[in-house]
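Pasting as-is:
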Amino acid sequence: MGFDLPSSTSVLHSGVTGASAKQWIEIVGAPTGGQFTLSLWGYTTPPIPWNVTTANLQNILEGLPCIGTGNVLVAGTAGVGYSLTFRVGLANVNVPLMTLAVVSPFTGGTSPAAYITYNRQTITPPGSGTYTLSVYNGATLVGTTAAIAFGASISAIVTALNLILGVTAIALFHDN
C-alpha cells in the first residue's frame, strides 16, 4: 500500500548539487476557455490562457523576477499539461510548489480544471557523501530526514521518509 502525498506537499533536497526542481501543471476536462495565474515567491504571472503554448508559458515564467531568463524549461502539450524544470540559476535552489489560481473560469469540456500535481527533485549525486530530504505541506515543514548516503537503496530512503511522515508505507518511484 502506498502513501500519496497531498498535491500541496513538496519534497525538497539539501546538501546536493545539480538538483533540479520539477513541477507539473495539468489541464483536465478538455476545456475550451479559461485562464489561470501562477505565483512563486510573492510574484504572480499575468493571466495565462488554458491552451498557452509551451514557448509562451516559458516566456511568461522567465518574465517573473524570481525566475529570470533561462532558469526554467517548459515542455508538454498545450491545453493538456506542462512540465516545468527549474535549472541554471535555480538548479540548486529548493523551489517551492507554485500556486495556481483560476482567474477566468474554465469552460467547455467535462468538469475542466487546472492544477499543479506535485513537485519533484532530481538529484545528481557527486558519488559520495550524504543528503537530507525535507517534506513540506504548503509552506509548513513536516520534517527532515536524517542524513542519507548517496547510493542508498530505495528501501533506506522509504524508511527515512516513513520516520518523518509517521506512516508505515509510502510509494517511491525511480526514473531511469
